Amino acid sequence: MQRDVNGGRSYHSPRRAEQAAATRTAVVSAARELFLSEGYSGTTIAAVAARAHVAVDTVYAAVGRKPALLREVVETSISGTDHAVPARERDYVVRIREATGVRAKILIYADAVAQIQGRLGPVYLALREAASTDQDCRELWETISSRRAANMRAFVADLRVTGELRTDLSDDEMADIVWSMNGPEHWALLVHERGWTSERFGSWLADAWTRILTVAG
């Protein structure tokens, strides 16, 4: 038990915190389902509330307006958890930094991309479509895309220290190559349209990057 700044008593309830987290998770899950089935413009806060079995005001309190809902759906799809996780703190990024040898690093990342796209791909493609007509979606698309490009430069810089990368391609060129191939469009073509498994896509991606980026090829 703690006293507040006015001398009164304030209480921290683990149970209340758990309930709030569960409500937030339910709201984000409902929003994801509706964004994918109805599209961004066709999804309303009222529909999200109904799907999550909460009041409309609860949606606003738990996450926020529709743009905030979409951002949270994207972020949790990337992290695979119920909250956003900064890139450097993600498990696979830590393992990449700890791995020795360019091939091991590439394999870890390719496997992570295959897993992430299973969650993120459909959401990202829906976001891209909505970005053509909605300003909030366009801003989110540009933010996520730019952040992904910056993360690829950090990834290539980590690969470069192994001494195993080609020298006829700049780090920026390599980052652009990885950025273009780890996007949802590439995943959708091979997994959704050609019927590849996630595992096959990850293995192919690792092999392709190894051939394109490394000295031995």
From TrEMBL:
Q: Look up the DNA-binding region in the UniProt entry and give its residue ranges.
A: 44-63
Does the keyword Transport feature in the UniProt annotation? no
A Pfam family it matches: TetR_N
**Hey, what's the signal peptide range on this chain?**
none
Q: What are the residue boundaries of the HTH tetR-type domain, all occurrences included?
A: 21-81
Q: Which InterPro entries match?
A: Homeodomain-like_sf (IPR009057), HTH-type_TetR-like_transc_reg (IPR050109), HTH_TetR (IPR001647), Tet_transcr_reg_TetR-rel_C_sf (IPR036271)
Keyword annotations from UniProtKB, A to Z: DNA-binding, Transcription, Transcription regulation
This chain's protein is named AcrR family transcriptional regulator
Q: Which organism is it from?
A: Cellulomonas humilata
